[in-house]
C-alpha cells in the first residue's frame, strides 16, 4: 500500500469490480482512455485479474485503487504501467467525475512516482494522452512532463500525445 497525506493506493482486488465497472464506463474514460468493453461485473472482475493483477505479479506495480484515507471512498485508479509498446513505464490515472478538480489526481500520481523511484528504482516515466485532454496534460505538467510528440503505439492505433521529462533524451518509440 502507498500512502499520501489524504490517499491510499492499493492493489485492485476482485471485490473492487463494482467500482471498476462504474469507472471504466464513465463517458470521459471512454473518450480519453478508451472503451475497454467492460459491461458486467464479471467483465470487471476479469479486467482486474487479467490486467492489474498480472502487472503486479510481473512488474511489482500497476494501476492501483485510489481511496480517501479519511473514509475509504473509492476515487479512481492511478499507477505506473509497463507496456510492451513503450521502453519505460508510463503513468496512468482515471478518477470518477465527483472527485476531479480537488487535487487527488496530482497527489496520487506523485505518490505512485515516489513509490516507483524508491521501491522499484524506476528513474524514467513517460505519459501518453489522447490529444485534446487538456486537464490530463495540465496535471502531467505539474509532474514535470512536457508534450514531446504524437506517437502511435500500434499500427492500427490512434495517435496519442507522448509527454516526457524536459531535458531528457527522447524516448525511442
UniProtKB/TrEMBL annotation:
InterPro entries xrefs: Acyl_CoA_acyltransferase, GNAT_dom, N-acetyltransferase
Cited SUPFAM superfamilies: Acyl-CoA N-acyltransferases (Nat)
GO MF: acyltransferase activity, transferring groups other than amino-acyl groups
PROSITE patterns: GNAT
Coiled-coil features, chain-numbered ranges: none
One of the Pfam families matching this protein, by short name: Acetyltransf_3
Protein name, as recorded: Uncharacterized protein
Amino acid at each position: 500500500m502507498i500512502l499520501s497525506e489524504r490517499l491510499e493506493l492499493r492493489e485492485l482486488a476482485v471485490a473492487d469490480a463494482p467500482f471498476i465497472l462504474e469507472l471504466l464506463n464513465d463517458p470521459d474514460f471512454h473518450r480519453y482512455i478508451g472503451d475497454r468493453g467492460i459491461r458486467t461485473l464479471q467483465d470487471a472482475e476479469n479486467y482486474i485479474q487479467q490486467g492489474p493483477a498480472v502487472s503486479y505479479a510481473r512488474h511489482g506495480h500497476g494501476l492501483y485503487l485510489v481511496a480517501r484515507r479519511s473514509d475509504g471512498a473509492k476515487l479512481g485508479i492511478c499507477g505506473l504501467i509497463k507496456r510492451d509498446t513503450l521502453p519505460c513505464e508510463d503513468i496512468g490515472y482515471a478518477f470518477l467525475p465527483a472527485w476531479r478538480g480537488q487535487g487527488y489526481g496530482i497527489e496520487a500520481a506523485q505518490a505512485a512516482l515516489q513509490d516507483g523511484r524508491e521501491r522499484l528504482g524506476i528513474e524514467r516515466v513517460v505519459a501518453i494522452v489522447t490529444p485534446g485532454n487538456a486537464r490530463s496534460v495540465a496535471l502531467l505538467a505539474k509532474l514535470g512532463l512536457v508534450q514531446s510528440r504524437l506517437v502511435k503505439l500500434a499500427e492500427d492505433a490512434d495517435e496519442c500525445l507522448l509527454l516526457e521529462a524536459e531535458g531528457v533524451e527522447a524516448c525511442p518509440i
